[in-house]
Amino acid sequence: MPKLFKILLLALLAAFSLGALAQEAAIRKNMAARLPQLKAIDEVRKTDIPGLFELRVNGTEIYYTDAQANYLIEGNLIDTRNRRNLTEERVEKLTAIKFESLPLKDAFTIVRGNGERKIAVFEDPNCGYCKRFERDLQKVDNVTVYLFLYPILGADSTEKSKSIWCAKDRVAAWQDWMLRDQNAPAAAAMCDTSALARNVELGHKHKITGTPTLLFTNGARVPGAVDSKKIEQMLSDAAKG
Question: What total number of domains does the chain contain?
């Protein structure tokens, strides 16, 4: 009997797998025929809601559809019982960046206190929100900040980033400009600024579309000028793993 049961179980699993593949193929076919302007579907997944499927498009864009692809839903899927935004959680997981994979040689380092907690930040020197964020960041102690210059707001952002990157003291030059409203330094001598181009390429790869963007050691990212309380909370969550 155990052998027969195993054979039946394998047969059921195979049938289920074939059925799921056929269903996915039908969704892809119908969606392509009906909405050709929709970018190629990367993945089709069942959700916990019977008959509702998740479509992942363009890496991290999430949509929902039924088994026949008769309808396309754009928006957030909310678990009302547990008060969770399932779509947001899914996107956060998809866009998570392994902290250890970051090319830290292309950033400069700011250490406060014992520096035991770590955070990486992508910032543009012409970003007003970044200046506000920098003021709040000063309230956070015992942290190492890996600052990735990310000039995406125009040619002047690139020029200011080059001057800061080539300054004798990058940290002082950055803080003079961002915190003390002093002029961006004129580089005494231009240096190798290829790191800036690599930062922009890295950001585009991981869909970092705005500044500031914060990255934590647990892979979490937070866009926007969050305050020191939020930074402390995220650092605490990262420490828990």
Answer: 2
